[in-house]
Design a protein that fits this description.
Elements lengths: L5 E2 L6 E5 L2 E4 H21 L2 H4 L5 H27 L1 H6 L14 H19 L3 H8 L4 H14 L13 E2 L7 E2 L2 H20 L8 H17 L18 H23 L4
Parallel strand pairs: 1-4
Antiparallel strand pairs: 2-3, 4-5
Helix pairs in contact: 1-3, 1-7, 3-5, 6-9, 7-8, 8-9, 9-10
Subcellular location: Cell membrane
Function: Catalyzes the transfer of the diacylglyceryl group from phosphatidylglycerol to the sulfhydryl group of the N-terminal cysteine of a prolipoprotein, the first step in the formation of mature lipoproteins.
InterPro entries: Lgt
């Protein structure tokens, strides 16, 4: 019965309204991710092996601003192209309709990678070395974003009867996996701990970035089995969701990158 399961608390997505300005939980989660990345990145700048590569707080702050812009722009473009392409074809202006929501991690990743590549060209530093520096800064922001999804009562999981199943009123009366919390725990907390531990010492250039790709890709791929597929897309070839199809290349690419890094041997 419905009373046997947890019920989503139906939290107001708006924390406070001041005139025309709404402070939303989801936006606050982005701020949390940005502030954590700023703090942890400055901490990394003081680590001997990063300082030896020329990382300073000033240099990092310049990169962080543009990386954050890459997340926002890439996330929106990726969502529209990966998940709402037909809607975009019907109305190209939908790309700029940010009030309707919609962000994609994989699009945000491509946006950040573009920024890192431009930064590497201008600074004449290895693209892979910059990626290694940035990788540990990302997971906490991902976890915070998933908590924002949970607070909003969106991107819920598939129907289930596990003891911790939750009823999301917007999804109907069936109990579902709170898959947003699974993602927050795996893509956020667990991945950060792994990367923070691994990056304490110099590693072959590209290895930290490769580990991030593997870790996120695996976490997302597994949790997608508990997450409700996008209604307009459903399950695709092999019964995989769009999230799984976008994550599989990350896993393969991460493995290849780590193999390349350890064969090459130079460390950062």
């Amino acid at each position: 019965m419905q009373s046997d399961y947890l019920v989503h608390p139906n939290i107001d997505p708006i924390i406070v309204s001041i005139g025309p300005f709404d402070l939303r939980w989801y936006g606050l989660m982005y701020l949390v991710g940005f502030l954590f990345a700023w703090w942890w990145g400055n901490r990394q700048c003081r680590m001997p092996h990063h300082a030896a590569q020329g990382w300073t707080e000033k240099r990092f702050s310049d990169l962080l601003f543009w990386a954050f812009m890459g997340v926002i722009l890439g996330g929106r473009v990726g969502y529209v192209l990966f998940y709402q392409f037909e809607r975009f074809i019907d109305n190209p202006l939908y790309l700029f309709d940010i009030t309707s929501g919609g962000m994609s991690f994989h699009g945000g990743l491509l946006g950040v990678l573009t920024v890192l590549w431009i930064f590497s060209v201008k600074s004449k530093q290895s693209f892979l070395a910059i990626g290694d520096f940035v990788a540990p800064l990302v997971p906490v922001g991902l976890g915070a974003g998933r908590i924002g999804n949970f607070i909003n009562g969106e991107l819920w999981g598939r129907v289930t009867d596990v003891p911790w199943a939750m009823i999301f009123p917007a999804a109907g009366p069936e109990p579902r996996h709170p898959s947003q919390l699974y993602q927050a725990g795996l893509e956020g907390l667990a991945l950060f701990i792994i990367l923070a531990f691994y990056s304490r010492k110099p590693r072959p250039t590209g290895a930290i970035g490769g580990l991030f790709l593997i870790g996120y890709g695996l976490a997302r791929f597994v949790v997608e089995y508990a997450r409700q597929p996008d209604q307009h897309l459903g399950l695709l070839l092999f019964g995989w969701s769009m999230g799984q199809w976008l994550s599989a290349p990350m896993i393969v690419g991460g493995v290849l990158l780590m193999v390349f890094a350890y064969k090459r041997g130079s460390k950062v």
